[in-house]
Amino acid sequence: MIFRLTLIFFILIALATNAQEKLISNVRIQGNKKTKTKAIKKLSNIREGMALDSLVIEKDIKRLKRLPSIAHAYYQVHEKTEGYEVVYGVEENFTIIPGINVYTTNDDEFAFRVSLSEFNLLGQNITLGGYYQNDIYNAFGAQIRAPFLFNKHLGLALNYQNLTTLEPVFLENGTADYKYNNTSYEISGLYQINLQHRVELGINYFNEDYEYKTGVTSPDVPQDFDVNKLLYKFIYEYNNLNFYYQYVSGFRSVLNSQYVISTEDVLPDFFIWWNDFLYYQRIGKRGNWANRLRVGLATNDDTPFAPFAVDNNLNIRGVGNIIDRGTGVIVWNTEYRHTLYDKDWFVLQSNVFVDAGSWRNPGGDFGDFGDSQNFRVYPGIGLRFMHKRIFNAIFRIDYGYGITRDATNGFVFGIGQYF
Question: Percent of the chain, pLDDT > 90?
């Protein structure tokens, strides 16, 4: 009897305490004009009727600041008679963004890509975009990406491209140039596990058409061939980055793995994977140290069409347009960004960088990574012109100068940070 009375006593105390605890009575979004309030609330974990939890709120704010539609986000908590009112405030980005990438080398090579993308279609954080490229030949592509199409975890992406370039093919007795066309159709499922982890599964049907133009030839390599392929891909991303306008801090890792099935023996089936490790650190009030380490391997076939390329826009600034290929890659990009001017919406940043990398030769071994013929180091300097209220409105100019064997130098222009 005494035990029952004691148990009832403690239950009543617990119920009384819980009844006195104030809960969240209202969640309000302010500052959004284009982004739908419903879309922001869908991505938030705070709900009316929940107990106030600052850790949950901080995660919501971190998630909002990663969205292309949001330049900055903050929160306020107001205590009311009926409970707590939680206010999420956002500063929106302008999200209809033109883009341009231009690169040159001291060989008078010139190529460019222009694009136009809407990163907040219908106010739902859907990306719709397309591009046109001229790299000797014309190319174009389009994509739509809706990461939160079904709920805050599940989305869909569609992609089409018709890419044509002049590709160098490296044979034992020299180099040949091929006109290369890739026409592809891709669909991917996107799943956001939680704030830090996401996965992507995709399938891509594409056609590759190679047409010999100039250079050396080999009896083992056909001069014209047309191949249909099927690509399966898996992407896993860990993201613990935190943003404050142009400044970034934290760690991010992106694993990309693909299995490609070919219909022709001249381009055999192969498996490829690479992982980008990115680390950012704030240095004082105006500095930002940024790093990217890329490590990757592919099936080690002795083929002139190896998948990893050495290229201006991919990994080594100033090196030129696809100057070499390999079946393995190790590249480290490191740079220090310093804000020279920050006033209202405009930011001017300086940039000092070193890009260094090495490749495994097709059919080679891991010792190739230490071969001086495969190792390249390109230090350089650059500038960044930024608009703080327009998503990814960063116009960059970099000049890389090679200091290793057979080095070149050149400018690389583009939209957005290099990494």
Answer: 70
